[in-house]
């Protein structure tokens, strides 16, 4: 678990925007927090897993994918903004994310 600060929040946003711009072959300025990952950008769930791996390495975390799956059922992610928020929750709370409700 990592204490969130403005630097981490900015890094997460930048990594996610850059990742989807590259993977979905869209201009970064076409992406907003309201962009729908699947409908607007043509993304998929495997991209979400790749991002989790990027961030777990970057912030030296170990996270159980089952825990993220359970959390995702209660908190589905459709937009870039929702994905950013979920990733920040994962970084801050790790496997305890499941206990946030």
Structure description:
- The protein is an all-alpha fold and 101 residues long.
- The protein has one domain: Non-ribosomal Peptide Synthetase Peptidyl Carrier Protein, Chain A (Orthogonal Bundle), CATH 1.10.1200.10.
- Helix content is 55%, strand content 0%.
- It contains 4 helices and no strands.
- It is globular.
- It starts with 5 loop residues before the first helix and ends in an 8-residue tail after the last helix.
- The mean pLDDT is 92.
What is the topology?
Blueprint: H1 6-23, H2 45-58, H3 65-74, H4 80-93
Major beta sheet, specifics?
none
Count of all domains: 1
Quickly name the level 1 CATH class: Mainly Alpha
Reported by name, the CATH topology is: Non-ribosomal Peptide Synthetase Peptidyl Carrier Protein, Chain A
The overall pLDDT, averaged over residues, is: 92
Number of helices: 4
Following the backbone from N to C, one meets helices and strands in this order, namely: HHHH
Distance between the termini: 17 Å
Number of strands: 0
CATH H-level superfamily: ACP-like
Explain briefly what this protein structure is:
The chain is an all-alpha fold. It has four helices and no strands.
Which properties best describe this structure?
single chain, 101 residues, mainly alpha, Non-ribosomal Peptide Synthetase Peptidyl Carrier Protein, Chain A, globular
